[in-house]
Design brief:
Distance between the termini: 28 Å
Order of helices and strands: HHH
Helix content: over 70%
Shape: elongated
Structural class: mainly alpha
Radius of gyration: 16 Å
Length: 78
Amino acid sequence: MKEKMQKKISNMSKISKYILKYGLSVCLILLVVANILLYTSTNNYNLFLGRELASSVFIAIAEICIGALIFDYCKDMG
Protein backbone atom coordinates (compact mmCIF):
# COMPACT_ATOMS: atom_id res chain seq x y z
CA MET A 1 0.00 0.00 0.00
CA LYS A 2 2.80 2.39 0.94
CA GLU A 3 4.68 1.67 -2.28
CA LYS A 4 1.55 2.23 -4.34
CA MET A 5 0.94 5.63 -2.73
CA GLN A 6 4.61 6.56 -3.14
CA LYS A 7 4.47 5.65 -6.83
CA LYS A 8 1.32 7.73 -7.40
CA ILE A 9 2.80 10.77 -5.67
CA SER A 10 6.10 10.48 -7.55
CA ASN A 11 4.18 10.40 -10.86
CA MET A 12 2.28 13.62 -10.07
CA SER A 13 2.91 16.71 -12.13
CA LYS A 14 5.35 19.32 -10.90
CA ILE A 15 2.64 21.92 -10.30
CA SER A 16 0.57 19.50 -8.20
CA LYS A 17 3.61 18.70 -6.09
CA TYR A 18 4.20 22.42 -5.54
CA ILE A 19 0.56 22.90 -4.53
CA LEU A 20 0.90 20.13 -1.95
CA LYS A 21 4.31 21.21 -0.72
CA TYR A 22 3.66 24.90 -0.22
CA GLY A 23 0.01 24.54 0.76
CA LEU A 24 0.81 22.06 3.51
CA SER A 25 3.76 24.22 4.64
CA VAL A 26 1.44 27.20 5.08
CA CYS A 27 -1.02 25.01 6.97
CA LEU A 28 1.76 23.81 9.26
CA ILE A 29 2.71 27.40 10.06
CA LEU A 30 -0.92 28.25 10.80
CA LEU A 31 -1.23 25.21 13.07
CA VAL A 32 1.82 26.36 15.02
CA VAL A 33 0.25 29.81 15.40
CA ALA A 34 -3.00 28.21 16.56
CA ASN A 35 -1.15 26.14 19.15
CA ILE A 36 0.69 29.20 20.42
CA LEU A 37 -2.63 31.02 20.75
CA LEU A 38 -4.18 28.09 22.60
CA TYR A 39 -1.34 27.60 25.06
CA THR A 40 -0.74 31.26 25.83
CA SER A 41 -4.36 32.39 25.92
CA THR A 42 -5.18 34.66 28.81
CA ASN A 43 -8.70 35.50 27.78
CA ASN A 44 -11.61 33.82 26.04
CA TYR A 45 -11.09 35.68 22.77
CA ASN A 46 -7.61 34.24 22.18
CA LEU A 47 -8.85 30.77 23.12
CA PHE A 48 -11.74 31.08 20.66
CA LEU A 49 -9.42 32.40 17.94
CA GLY A 50 -6.97 29.53 18.43
CA ARG A 51 -9.73 26.90 18.25
CA GLU A 52 -11.27 28.39 15.14
CA LEU A 53 -7.89 28.72 13.43
CA ALA A 54 -7.01 25.10 14.20
CA SER A 55 -10.32 23.78 12.89
CA SER A 56 -10.05 25.93 9.76
CA VAL A 57 -6.54 24.66 9.06
CA PHE A 58 -7.71 21.04 9.04
CA ILE A 59 -10.38 21.96 6.50
CA ALA A 60 -7.74 23.78 4.42
CA ILE A 61 -5.48 20.70 4.49
CA ALA A 62 -8.27 18.57 3.05
CA GLU A 63 -9.04 21.17 0.38
CA ILE A 64 -5.37 21.45 -0.63
CA CYS A 65 -4.90 17.69 -0.93
CA ILE A 66 -8.12 17.20 -2.90
CA GLY A 67 -7.39 20.23 -5.08
CA ALA A 68 -3.91 19.02 -5.96
CA LEU A 69 -5.23 15.56 -6.85
CA ILE A 70 -8.02 16.99 -9.01
CA PHE A 71 -5.56 19.35 -10.71
CA ASP A 72 -3.23 16.44 -11.47
CA TYR A 73 -6.09 14.29 -12.76
CA CYS A 74 -7.43 17.05 -15.04
CA LYS A 75 -3.96 17.86 -16.33
CA ASP A 76 -3.44 14.22 -17.33
CA MET A 77 -6.77 14.14 -19.19
CA GLY A 78 -6.08 17.19 -21.31
